[in-house]
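User: I'm putting together notes for a lab meeting next week and I want to include a structural view of one of the chains we've been expressing. I don't have a solved structure, so I'd like a prediction I can at least talk through. The sequence is below, exactly as it appears in our construct file.
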Amino acid sequence: MAWPSSLEFQTIDDWLAYPEPSGLGEGNTPLSTLPRLAATLGISALCTKNEFANPTGSHKDRMGRMVVQRALEAGAKTIAVASSGNAGVSISAYAARSSLECVVVTTPDISPNWRRAIEMHGARIVATENSDDRWALIAENAKKGSWYPATNYTIPPVGSNPFGVDSYRAIALELHLQLQAAPTTDIIVPTARGDLLWGIAKGYRDLSDSGLSRSTPNIHAVEPYPRIRSALAGHGMVGLFSGDTDMVSIGGNTVTQQSLYALEISKGSAVAVDDDDVAADQAVLANEGLYLERSSAATLTGLRKLISEKKIASNARVVLIATSHGYKEHARFLERLPTAQR
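Assistant: Thanks for the context. Below is the predicted structure for the 342-residue chain, given as structure tokens.
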């Protein structure tokens, strides 16, 4: 779906495949400026795009809205999502809003916070032994016509439902409108299988092709281990990574073609970051008033590495995509509070 040839529109919704609003109020998320951090890092400007301001607290609500509307149009009765986190919560919320049945196929180590939210929305949880088994179960039921799939169900993966991926193009339009006075030069995106990365890159490509944007930012992927970099070096789409990371929302050992293509069309880079460094930057961002999920805090760590590698210049105006807040994180991150001394 290409952008219209004019910026005369009523709302962001007019730019989406399904313009009918959900009523939950997703999208049009705000920015938080970080001038102190920008000065510390030696760049021109820095801000976050606060996707945690969406109704269920993550960028996945953009996808949830579109996929559920598509499922309704297709006549589906049950929608299924392979997720151990934000996507499961979001799809279950939007399914409940539209009176669809929802199945969340997850793994036994799902965070209690995410599990409770999913159950509160009335979805059914099915746990498989590992992540790949989630895709196999959804594939089996999708082929029978029992479940409408919201997320990937193939190996190697291709990304989530295309209507959901397409919804992320709206982030490019929002940033274009929010930062018209000083357009961003670089965007850093937490990346697993690249749905968000691709959507933003495609959005900017459409803006450029339509003549609506004169400048296109470089869009970079941050990941917990060098999956994309390995794939770009010719080592295949499925790696031998352990999958063990505190950045649970961007874990996994696979790469999608859409991630590689997004970096190609946006002239971006992929950067891998360490759990300990991300934990430190989570605290740095919290001291700026932003308590982000570690997968989101990874964007700051990635920015530091990109600057050190001279892939982001001193005159850069950078946007970090803050995909989710930290309140949902797994209890293993919590430490026992000290008892007050009398």
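A couple of points you could mention at the meeting. The radius of gyration is 19 Å. The first helix runs from residue 35 to 41.

User: Perfect, that's what I needed.
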